[in-house]
Amino acid sequence: MDKVPMTKGGYDRMGSELKELKVVQRPAVIKAIAEAREQGDLSENAEYHAARERQSFIEGRIQELEDKISRAEVIEIDSVSGSKNIKFGATVTLVDEDTDEKVTYQIVGQDEADIKKGLLSTTSPLGRALIGKKPKDGVEINTPSGTKAYEVVKVAYK
User: pTM of the entire structure?
Assistant: First the structure.
């Protein structure tokens, strides 16, 4: 069984979501199904079918989160801090060499990645290209719209 690397923050977020699903959402959907059943004919009961679909989604997400949490390998950022090279957990500031636009990402595990929140997966093309780099290094990645070039400005471990 493969370990899933993640930050402490990612592990905690998954744990919170799992608790929310089990303690709040699962009982609520069970109640909704029971109420819909009381309305009689289930074949034409839209509320019943919607609640069953929601239940299916919740149960699937619970299984997925339990699996990931059981395989989690929480990597303490403190254990790699002090390094100038980009490693798992690093917060990296880059400059787009074409637009001079600065972007900041934290390098995280695949299951906690969210580019809108600045969480970049180690398995993404940019994430893979950044591992091992240090400030002032250049990074090029191929994208569907062409090659993008970045310069690493700052590496921090928070």
Answer: 0.78
